[in-house]
Request: fold
Amino acid sequence: MSRLPLPQDVAPAHSVRDEPDGSDRPDVSDRPDGSGKFHRFMRTWATGITVVTTRCQGRSVGCTVTAFTSVSLRPALLLVSLADGSRTLATLQARGVFGVNVLAGDQTALAGHFATAPGDRLATVPHRLIDGVPLLDAALATAVCRVERTWPVADHTLVLGRPSHYGALREVAPLIRFNGVSGPLAI
Reply:
């Protein structure tokens, strides 16, 4: 299994130089709103990659999410953060239920698909419905959650969910993101 590159091993997707070198690539540390330093800081945090899905009135939606965590064991609660204005957030709020699909290390293309594809992102992706929620057939693990509460925060909404169904489908390494690069966790 290959390992994810460390910061010194890879040229990042966006340059995080402290000093401009005259290249054409944008330097996130030079962002006028000061968010470049925060962006640079967050790239040092390795995180798993999920796809959050939901369905309402015959319309299925989903998006790639790295802001996902457990909140408590008793009761079991988890949290996802979704961008305001996203189709997934609007549909999730209308339906009150959503799926979390933990991606496997070989699913980088799937993460990209759910981050950028226009239109019906689930149309070409094998999935099944559990409690009316689309779950990806090839996901590492899945959960269906009922919305407990939401909080608008800045340009995102935090969604607290209570899992009602779990599925562990594959025993392979998870997909993680570190320093702007996605790949399998090397153990």
Observations:
- The longest strand covers residues 141-153.
- The radius of gyration is 17 Å.
- The helical segments are 35-42, 87-95, 108-116.
